[in-house]
Amino acid sequence: MSTVKSPLAEDARKVVGKALQAALVDLIDAALTAKQAHWNITGRNFKPLHEQLDEVVDSVRAHSDSVAERAVAVGLNPDGRASTVAGSTRLPQLESGYLQEDKVIAAFSDLLGQLIQRFRERIAVTDDVDLVTQDLFIGITADLEKHHWMFSVQN
Q1: Neighbour-count burial for 16-38, b at 16+ CB within 10 Å, e otherwise
Q2: Which pTM does this prediction carry?
């Protein structure tokens, strides 16, 4: 069994590990939530919102992979199992069934706003312990803010 030697001190690794794991759960659940909305959205603007949700899915899935790979690179084991995500997500959940476009827009404005807040907290937490992870979080936050802007102007 091979393990990765961490470039971080143990105390830094704990802080970074907690931030990376929470980020991974947020991103996986955001992708699942966006796909759920993508499948169930209804309304006059169905097609552009349907496509916009796929852009969110593609973005957060790519970021979740980067987060998980960063965790491994610093000697941590990411946990993206469905049971872990379901048991630890803090994201608001969508209603089941068909979703009117205005509800999806409002839900994603809120969801992305919450994600941005948490990623900004992670940026602050990693400032003194791991600038590489902080840089990763900064890039993710920039993308989340772009998606948030694009949903919020539709309200």
Answers
A1: bbebbbbbbbbbbbbbbbbebbb
A2: 0.96
